[in-house]
Amino acid sequence: MGPPALPETGFLDEWAARLRQAADRPVVGIMLRGSHARRAATEHSDVDVDVLVATEEPNGDLLSGADRAADGPSIPRPAVPPGVASRAADPYAVRRAYLAEFEGRLVHVSVAARDVRSWVERLGQPADWAFGLPVTAPARLIWATPEWRRRIDLPVLCQPADEPRLEELIATLGKIAAARWADDPLGVRLAAADLARLCPSVLRLVNPSVRVVSRRDALAAALDLPVAPPGYRDDMLRCLGLRPGTTGEVAAAAGRLVTGAVPLVRPYAEEIAAVAGADLAEALVDGRLDRYLAQLTRALGRPGATSRDTSAVPTPRAGEWLTVPASDAPVTGAPASSGDAAASGPARPSRLDPAIAARLRRTPDGLVAAVVRQHDSGEVLMVAWMDDEALHRTLTSGRATYWSRSRQEYWVKGDTSGHHQYVRSVALDCDGDALLVSVDQVGAACHTGHRTCFFTELPVSFPEATS
């Protein structure tokens, strides 16, 4: 069975004539947009139409020489306060909706009357619904005056990508932290939804270019960005309200989105400087931004003293490590069939380069010890465990990622405490059973708050030499 009958030339021509008569300024063009222009409409889809009208000059003259059509109901102008002159730069946008008969059923016709010059200029600005991604949306010119046809007869309407809005992303995380302290669950959720819509504009710096044609297409593309923090898709859905979660879970998801995005875009400080200024770009590089995010993320897990949100997550202690479920499922590898097999193969599926995986000698649990040191001083900071997938994430994300034997989860150092480890190099020892991870440590490495886990000196005695 084919698609239902949809309004075509006769219906659209009739409405074009009607809308030209209804406008209070000379009409220079009428454009069909949305699902009908994309030929993706169903019998329940709206018919979206832009009526493009002549631009009014400050002195009241119109740029188009077309005469206003007489008779017919008028689409009113927006109210202008007394004594305030109309300006050509003012956006002229009036919406009207109609229910029209078409082949025995009602069709919703949604009409936007727009100043033609501001409509053309708007094509040079990002679309507010596109999650910061560039837009290439099909359109169809129904009618136009000869002098405007060449300029507005566009088979697709192209709008550029948004700038990387890192400053707004951080500010919105601050609103979420403030709402948590004020025991304002609705404020947390509203700000988290705003944060999720901003996040793809920042991650676009590190991802291949993708163009979208609709809001639904934009959401799908934003969720599927290939370079993103661990758990990105789940956290985006939770922040947008498309996946259930307590207020604490939503706040934590927002924190992970920001703290996970920042190290990914650190190499793009120049692009950030061009948008948000030199200070934010310098803070991105010198660690101040990480410290600020640590302040915010500590607040995200700590509701106000009079909190009524009984499902809120516990307050993290300073230096506490975060465990992150491995939600971005690996695509290669296979579980070991027995404890003995784990020493020669991965215990969990992994995307680790097979050439590297073949050199590892694992424990029966499929793990390799990771000794972590400060890259420039050589100070030994801690010892943790990695499986194949944790090593893959460490090598490809720039963030030290480990496997928790007690919780049976992956965790990224610093995602709660803010004491991040930015990976500078990873070396495998000669036997393949230990890793040396050189990092740039922000703050304390130990969950006790000490710089290093090796702060307890043990007594060492030396036998006296005998003659």
UniProtKB/TrEMBL annotation:
It comes from Micromonospora eburnea. One of its GO terms (cellular component) is cytoplasm. Pfam families: Ant-IIb_sub-bd (PF18280), PRA-CH (PF01502). Its EC number is 3.5.4.19. Belongs to the PRA-CH family. Pathway: Amino-acid biosynthesis; L-histidine biosynthesis; L-histidine from 5-phospho-alpha-D-ribose 1-diphosphate: step 2/9; Amino-acid biosynthesis; L-histidine biosynthesis; L-histidine from 5-phospho-alpha-D-ribose 1-diphosphate: step 3/9. Keywords: Amino-acid biosynthesis, Cytoplasm, Histidine biosynthesis, Hydrolase, Magnesium, Metal-binding, Zinc. Residues 382-455 form the Phosphoribosyl-AMP cyclohydrolase domain. It comes from the Bacteria. The keyword Nuclease does not apply. Residues 59-86, 326-350 are annotated as: Disordered. It is an enzyme of class 3 (hydrolase). This is Phosphoribosyl-AMP cyclohydrolase. Catalyzes the hydrolysis of the adenine ring of phosphoribosyl-AMP. Zn(2+) binds at residues 430, 446, 453. Residues 333-349 have a biased composition (Low complexity). GO terms for biological process: L-histidine biosynthetic process. Its cofactor is Mg(2+); Zn(2+). GO terms for molecular function: magnesium ion binding; phosphoribosyl-AMP cyclohydrolase activity; phosphoribosyl-ATP diphosphatase activity; zinc ion binding. InterPro entries: Ant(4')-IIb_substrate-bd (IPR040517), NT_sf (IPR043519), PRA-CH (IPR026660), PRib_AMP_CycHydrolase_dom (IPR002496), PRib_AMP_CycHydrolase_sf (IPR038019). It catalyses: 1-(5-phospho-beta-D-ribosyl)-5'-AMP + H2O = 1-(5-phospho-beta-D-ribosyl)-5-[(5-phospho-beta-D-ribosylamino)methylideneamino]imidazole-4-carboxamide; 1-(5-phospho-beta-D-ribosyl)-ATP + H2O = 1-(5-phospho-beta-D-ribosyl)-5'-AMP + diphosphate + H(+). Binds 1 Mg(2+) ion per subunit. Binds 1 zinc ion per subunit. Mg(2+) binds at residues 429, 431, 433. CDD domains: NT_KNTase_like (cd05403).
